[in-house]
């Protein structure tokens, strides 16, 4: 079963939509039979807001599911109401990013491409602090809490049942000085240390790699259960985009494979990162 409230809510939404489609009904038709609006059924199937176990019970009885499945889905609804550890940080984790943190906690693997900055799971505290301080309209009181969240997220790479991370960095990430030379040297050395982990692979896409798709930064999240399909995450200053359609996932997976093929091998990438660190002394 998915390991975070966010992932449980997503799994529940997937199962409810599957049940409706198996009966070849629209959201409006289901809503009419239950004296609900069609938009309410749609919200339940997209994981928007909290789901009441009583609503899940009503849907399962309408679809004629087994008692076992009905109780399982009701349990998912109950568990989706719990709060993740990151909620304790309040405004330091905006709602649109809270969704990602919850999904990340349940993921078994991440494939990420970054063209400007080091991925959050591989950042040092000093590097992260500079990025947060540079953000427009940033509340200074939230900065340290944001850094704490980022550092706590990184436990996924070293804890029990650790996350598999495959990160591709554009070479410009190494040349873009964040803060000062000392911070960048520490960041490069941290990248090298993290790349030694068996579950972490770091590649650098060099400037002379040639032409490749202009995709921008993105992350593909994979989950341990086959019932939970992959998802693509892209973010901005104030919001994020979550892509789940199979055709979208396939395009990003192909783009990642192309970027991986054009990138330096992990060993040669480490050599380049090491030279970048030495050049900053």
Structure in words:
A hairpin with a 4-residue loop joins strand 5 and strand 6 (240-243). Helix content is 52%, strand content 12%. The model has no long low-confidence stretch (mean pLDDT 90). Helix 1 (5-22) runs antiparallel to helix 5 (67-79) and helix 10 (181-195) packs antiparallel against helix 12 (266-279). It has twelve helices and six strands. A six-stranded mixed beta sheet has the order 3-2-1-4-5-6, sandwiched between helices. It has two domains: 5-79, lambda repressor-like DNA-binding domains (434 Repressor (Amino-terminal Domain)); 89-279, Endonuclease, Chain A, CATH 3.30.870. It has 281 residues and is of the alpha/beta class. The termini are far apart.
Q: Which descriptors would you attach to this protein?
A:
six-stranded mixed β-sheet; 434 Repressor (Amino-terminal Domain); 281 residues; 12 helices; Endonuclease, Chain A; alpha/beta; 12% strand
Assign a percent range to the helix content. 40-55%
The best one-word shape is: elongated
Summarize model confidence as the mean pLDDT.
90
- What is the topology, as strand order, of the major beta sheet? 3-2-1-4-5-6
CATH architecture of the largest domain: 2-Layer Sandwich
CATH topology of the largest domain: Endonuclease, Chain A
User: Which stretches of 5+ consecutive residues score pLDDT under 50?
Assistant: none
Proportion of strand residues? 5-15%
Order of helices and strands: HHHHHHEHHEHHEEEEHH
Summarize the main sheet.
Answer: 6 strands, mixed
Rg calculated over all Cα atoms: 21 Å
Decide which structural class fits the backbone.
Answer: alpha/beta
**Level-1 CATH class name of the largest domain:** Alpha Beta
Beginning-to-end CA distance, first to last residue: 48 Å
As an assembly, this protein is: single chain
Supply the number of helical segments: 12
Number of domains: 2
Number of strands: 6
